């Protein structure tokens, strides 16, 4: 996560404040949340929403403009 510039608090923010979710196959869901500075973080979790603990994080990435 650190090599992608994502902190644990960034991930927690998305898990608590996601505005968009997509089923991404392989029993995964992508969550997206916009931060106050305009950046959007994508978090892929195992399973679907609603979130059930423990939440297993598969991957994270900041959204790039070419992702839109």
Give an account of the 3D structure.
- 15% of the residues lie in helices and 38% in strands.
- It is mainly β.
- 12% of the residues are buried.
- The model has no long low-confidence stretch (mean pLDDT 90).
Secondary-structure class: mainly beta
Number of helices: 1
What do the pLDDT scores average to? 90
Distance between the termini: 22 Å
Q: What's the gyration radius in Å?
A: 11 Å
Global outline: globular
Largest sheet: number of strands, sense, barrel closure = 4 strands, antiparallel
Regions with pLDDT < 50 over 5+ consecutive residues? none
Helix content percent band: 10-25%
Strand order of the largest sheet: 1-2-3-4
Order of helices and strands: HEEEE
Strand content: 35-45%
Total separate domains: 1
User: Based on DSSP secondary structure assignment, what is the total number of beta strands?
Assistant: 4
